[in-house]
Specification:
This protein is mostly helical and 178 residues long. The chain has nine helices and two strands, in the order αββαααααααα. The chain has helices spanning 2-5, 29-40, 46-59, 63-84, 86-95, 98-112, 117-132, 139-143, 163-176, and strands spanning 9-12, 17-20. Helix 4 runs antiparallel to helix 5. The N and C termini lie far apart (36 Å).
Length: 178
């Protein structure tokens, strides 16, 4: 039912439950889990939960979590750049590895199959729910193409305890996008 409603995850504030749609495209699952857990840890704003999810994924030892966080950050940044400079966004897209492009395209195709009237109606309900909990832009925030919290792909933005740890993590991250 989550898929038909266009929901990959939800935090139910009344019960304290973080729920993730098991049909979420596999590459997005770790990021979505971390996003919903961020809500569970009292991060209410969607962009804040996205930023926390990115950080949690990048700090996780699992390459799958790191890849999920990196690809989510890329998508948010790419979409924001696309609004501002389509040419630059297209050039960066062309430089991505075939595997990353394939994952993003497969995710888009996966979610496209659920679009329709049911999802439109559910989006209106979700929009009202989010606005009731001070997410002023409602579902627009969920679709938002990025902002300062999303543009965290640069190496300088990630703080590490030691330079050695930073170098090792960055080397792993680069391997994921090569």
């Amino acid at each position: 039912m989550f898929s038909q409603f266009g929901i990959t995850g939800i935090f139910v504030c009344f019960t304290g439950e973080s729920c993730v749609n098991p049909d979420t495209y596999e590459v997005w699952l770790p990021f979505t889990m971390c996003h919903e857990l961020a809500h569970r840890q009292t991060v209410a704003a969607e962009d804040g939960a996205n930023f926390c999810a990115y950080l949690a994924c990048m700090e996780n030892e699992s390459p799958e979590f790191q890849y999920s966080g990196a690809i989510a950050a890329y998508v948010y940044c790419h979409n924001a750049l696309y609004k501002a400079d389509k040419t630059a966004a297209s050039e960066i897209w062309a430089d991505l590895s075939d595997g990353v492009r394939a994952d993003i395209q497969a995710a888009n195709e996966h979610y496209a199959q659920y679009e329709g009237k049911v999802q439109d109606a559910a989006t209106k309900v979700n929009d009202t729910y989010l606005k009731a909990f001070s997410e002023e832009s409602g579902c627009a925030e969920l679709r938002r193409s990025g902002g300062s919290a999303h543009c965290v792909v640069s190496e300088a933005s990630v703080s590490r305890k030691t330079a050695k740890t930073k170098k090792n993590v960055l080397d792993k991250r680069r391997e994921l996008f090569v």
